[in-house]
Amino acid sequence: LRSSPERAAAATLWLALATAVAGAAEPATGASDGPMPDAAALYATHCAACHGETRLGGQGPALLPVSLGRLKPADIARTIANGRAATQMPAFADSLDKGEIAALAAFVGKPPAVTPAWTEADIRASRILHPAPAATEPVFDADPLNLFVVVEAGDHHVSILDGDRFTTLARFPSRYALHGGPKFTPDGRFVFFGSRDGWISKYDLWTLTTVAEVRAGINMRNIALSADGRWIAAANYLPGTLVLLSAETLEPVRIFEAGDARKAPSRVSAVYQAPDRNSFIAALKDVPEIWEIATDPAAAPVFTGLVHNYEKGMAEALPASAGLFALRRIAVEEPVDDFFFDRGYRHLLGAARDGGRALVVNLNVGRTVATVPMPGMPHLGAGIGFTWQERRVIAAPHLSEGRISIIDTADWSVVKTIETAGPGFFLRSHEDTPYIWADAMMSKASDGMQIIDKRTLEVVRVLKPAPGKIAAHTEFDRSGRHALVSVWDADGALVVYDAATLEERTRLPMRKPVGKYNVFNKIRFSEGTSH
Ligand code: DHE
Fold first, then answer.
1. 72 CA distance to ligand 1 centroid (A)?
2. Sign of CA dihedral 72, 74, 80, 84
3. Model-level pTM?
4. CA-CA distance, 188 to 146, in Å (whole number)?
């Protein structure tokens, strides 16, 4: 899942695709006897209207290798042939023969001749302002701070739930493939969604309407909102930029070309809000630097690093920057990403590329202060903090091994490794519950949700919301009395549990509900949830 294995896997997948589609192209239509299909012409005729002439997306998603990397190769040919249920994507099996479908699948899997750019002008031109109904209070009688925002990936929709009655207040189509946690304004009224294709949508939870959208990049990782709710940061892989926008208007206000002080370019893995520091913290994928960007207009001048002057043969200081959006470069030993922050945002833990350890970086002094051995690809971004035996600890799952590491933030020692049924993705807890909920979604035991007692650090129960279907991603209501778990299936559900008795209370049918987010827990930075 990290860069080199990711790339290797992608290469293998595309090789497999070539083989698979070549096989798929054989005789039924006799296509292999005729001339090679002109894939570019086929694309222009059948795909460009929805996916864009330059494959950057339109009504449909972008069709570039960077965007399709997570799709299995055979899926692409199958999607072209069969379409996608509950979306605008039609089936082409009746109008294109197998050879043409294979050629198209291979075509969209290759990078375009010229790497696409996405400039400030493109960002501005993409902005869409929807009619925004005026409101002085919510249009519903539910507690506006106990709403749940549920991202349903099955048909690319979002549902808004009343977190007391567990009823649906609204359901609307989202941009294609939302990723990462939606981000809420400090008053809980507006929520921002980011899509892998770079779209940011601003939704008013009081009027239940989407009010504005903008495309900040071609392939985006995630977004963050500043502590004062005024600025959004978007982390992009393509182009390698960190884009800052006004949260009110979604207009771009600053674009940073990502790269180190020596100007080696980089993709941006992710960006996070550091509320106690009044800053954004960004992970750079390809260079050994972490960026901190001030969202405080009174930010003191910061030294922005060194760049090598080849004429003089020496390193020179870059000019200091100060005030709003001042950039601070923190040099680290190697590129790190997937961050977890301790309470107060004094330290961050970042996963090293080899997937076997994490670096602890003290953000105040700007250097690595410890290394934590964490074999099995730690997923720090999914970590949670809590107090165990009067110590502040972090729990983090691992993506390739069935274990959860418990780390003491006083000395960065691993105080316990909890063996689980298999590798999982997400952890959740709440201040007012004694349990951690941990999935094992990347294992044979993926239908089980493991309940870990925070006092004993032992798995005390395994819940199976839908035997045989993946159970993942939990979120608590504002009181911590209920836990909502996803059944990750096209024909899935959101299952509501009593968080104390662990009994099911109700379930709502949903279409692959990948993530759900409680307004109160998010804006109050509950220690058991993601930020
Ligand atoms: Fe995510 C959050 C990175 C694959 C579902 N994922 C995040 C965040 C990062 C990240 C940096 C935190 C952003 C934030 O909340 O602002 N994810 C990555 C990867 O690098 C990885 C492993 C590979 C990739 O393809 O990007 C990856 N992620 C996935 C998936 O395959 C998941 C399971 C399905 C999907 O929809 O893509 C997935 N990621 C999620 C979800 C969150 C997330 C649901 C938000 C969790 C939360 O509770 O806040």
1. 18
2. negative
3. 0.89
4. 10
Question: At which residue do the structure tokens 């970086």 appear?
Answer: 361
Q: What is the pLDDT of residues 12-44, one digit of tens each?
A: 323 332 333 333 333 233 345 567 889 999 999
Site to substitute for ligand 1 among 4, 179, 519, most atoms within 8 A of C-beta? 179
Q: What residues are paired with 202 via a beta bridge?
A: 192, 212
Q: Are strands 279-284 and 289-294 parallel, antiparallel or unpaired?
A: antiparallel
Contact 245, 216 (CB under 8 A): yes
Q: Whose C-alpha lies nearest to ligand 1, atom 47?
A: 181
ipTM over 0.90: yes
270 lines ligand 1 (CB under 6 A): yes
Instruction: List, in order, residues 6 or more apart from 455 with CB less than 8 Å away.
Output: 388, 434
Q: Phi and psi at residue 224, in whole multiples of 5°?
A: -140, 155
d(CA 263, CA 257): 9
394-411 residue pLDDT tens: 999 999 999 999 999 999
Residue that is written with structure tokens 């089936």 in the block? 91
Which residue type sits at 382? A
What are phi and psi for residue 246, nearest 5 degrees? Answer: -75, 130
The amino acid present at 529, given as its one-letter code, is T
d(CA 144, CA 331): 42
Edge-to-edge, what's the strand order for the sheet holding 414-419?
A: 384-388, 391-397, 403-408, 414-419
